[in-house]
Amino acid sequence: MERNFTGHVRMSLQILLVEDDSHLRRQLTEQLGHFEHEVQPVGDGQEALSLLGRRPFDAVVLDWMLPTMDGVTLLREMRGQGMTMPVLMLTALGQTLDKVEGLEAGADDYVVKPVDPLELNARLNALVRARRTTEQPSDTIAAGDIVISPSRLMVWRGGQPLALSQTEFRLLLALARDAGEVVTRPMLIERIWGQDFETTTNIVDAHIRQLRVKLLQHGDDPIATVRGMGYVLRA
After folding, report:
1. Which end of the chain is more exposed for a tag (fewer CB within 10 A), N or C?
2. What CATH number should be reported for the domain holding residue 124?
């Protein structure tokens, strides 16, 4: 990493770009390259999944509409295999329900086309920076039958490992650190997405729903909703 003329740290990331439009794929590869990222462009979901199994990436930029395997299906497959790198979805679909579907499938953020390269770069840096700055104590955190290892970025429930996205992991970790106490939506947004994130968004609720689905695979729902306030992870 190095500092640019504004004094901010410039990150050089390994990025997998999954986009079937060849013109946009070349354009985004070139634009991200200007920010000193190394971009591996691919045109379909099956190829992307194969590549993800062979080499590590800091982040994935994933188009919604893809041949052979659409973006949401690919994302669910990635999370099901325990891949936790940040995923930013590209979509021409601007409706709220479409965005929520992507978030519930395990996306950490999204950008609606046409893509502004400055915004794309900023969002990718923020996602990766959030992951790299996640606290990594040597011990584990337990809340009921849930055990979290911040240093290993792993979660178990009832002794069974859970495959969570980066955002789901950080959300559960934030709740676990204050297990038994109400953690408000604004608190969760600030801890996970930063102070400047839009607080009226339903992004927290969308990720909580998906997190519950995964936690319910190995027991009762451990997250209680406190109406008008936030959530409590039962200790």
Report:
1. N
2. 3.40.50.2300
For residues 150 and 102, state if they share a domain: no
- Strand segments, DSSP code E, in the chain are 2-3, 9-10, 14-18, 38-42, 59-63, 87-91, 109-112, 141-143, 146-149, 154-157, 160-162, 183-184, 223-226, 230-233
- Bridge pairing between strands 14-18 and 38-42: parallel
Asked whether residue 148 falls in the same domain as residue 75, the answer is: no
Residue where a domain stops, chosen among 132, 167, 199? 132
The answer for residues whose C-beta is within 8 angstroms of residue 78's C-beta and 6 or more apart is 49, 52, 60, 87, 106
Reading the block at residue 144, the tokens are 């009921």
**Tens-place pLDDT, residues 93-125:** 666 667 788 888 889 998 988 999 999 999 999
Query: What residue numbers bound the domain in which 147 lies?
Result: 141-233
**Global pTM?**
0.57
